[in-house]
Every structure is written in C-alpha cells, then in structure tokens.
Sequence to fold (211 residues):
Amino acid sequence: MDYICYLSRSKIDSLYLQLHPDGLDEVTEQVVDERSRTADLQAGLSLGQIVSLFKGGITYGRRNVIQRERKVKTAYVEKLADVLINIAVDHGDVPDIGAAPASGPPGSVYYFHRGSFRVETPVSAPTVEDVVTLRSPVGDRTLYLDCSLRYFSEGPEPDGRFLLHSGNHRFFTGDLSLTLQGVFVLFQAENRKIFGTPLYLQLSAAGGSAL
Fold:
C-alpha cells in the first residue's frame, strides 16, 4: 500500500487558506492523542490521476500502525486533495520536471517527479528543526528537494525529538535510496541543478523503509 510519507503542513495550510479563507479555525498543527490501528505517472500528474489517488484511500503515514495525531493527519490528506485539485484546475496538468527548461522561465510553479531519492548530507543526530535535502537524478540533471524533518509522517515524538530507528536509519544516513513521487514547488532550474521543496512525497510501502 502506498502512503504519503512527507506532507508540508505549512505550505498546505497556506494554499488551503487561499481556497477557504474561513478555514483558519480548522485543525492544523494541534497534537491529538487518539490512537488507531488502521500507474505510471512519468508524464506528469493530471486531474484524473489526482482524483484516483485520493479515491484509493491514500494515507499520511503507514496503515495498520499506531498513529499519533490521527485526526490531524486525516485532515491534512483532505486539505492536500483540495489543494492539488485546485492546482490542476487552475494550471492544468502538473508537468513532469523532465519537461522543465534547463534555463530561463520555468513554465510552471508546480512540478511532478517520480524517481530514486537519496539524502544529500547524512544526518546522525537530527532534530525536528532540521532541514534535509533529498536528491534525485532527472536525465543529465539533478533535482534537490529541501524537506523539513518535522513533516515526515513517522517522525517527531511527543517530546519533539526526531528518532532514527531501524526502519529509517539507512535512508537518513545516506546509505539507502528510496523511490518517491510527489508534487513540489520549483525554486530554480539552472544548468544541471534543479531546486525545489515538496508539497508531498509518496512512498511505496513494499519498496522502502518507514518514513
């Protein structure tokens, strides 16, 4: 079962409030104590594919594990769906980053990518305030995505620590690559380097560790 392993709550909140200005009082970054056991997109991401993704019951974090903040995470999946659908309606299909020009105007604010990602700089004693950069090859270029550790689905503990464990240690120490896909905000594409930050990243549970 695929699941969302990373979701930028700050960016989703900002984009969501542009759609629903009256949603300021909705659940955002609250801590909730409830516990519960609970196609090839290389050409880009279309409106139909976005709808299918959420119809399939995609979750923010793995299924069948104890999830802190269950209500909050459910709310963010719903917000993400609204935001992505609005992007597709307003801007058209989200193009694959491989279609972005090597220089000059990017052509789009949002891009999609599916590929093999590795941590650029290994971390050994991370905190939730840290930002890690994930890199992935895009043809003869390299995509760099900046990700706040606090937004990984299996990350922060109730006391605010970010724990490395047997399921994520190899990834965050740079020894293991994971196949991820998602939509990101493009900062810059110059020569052979592409810089951005993701709205979300999706992981195949069958092919990766717990994030």
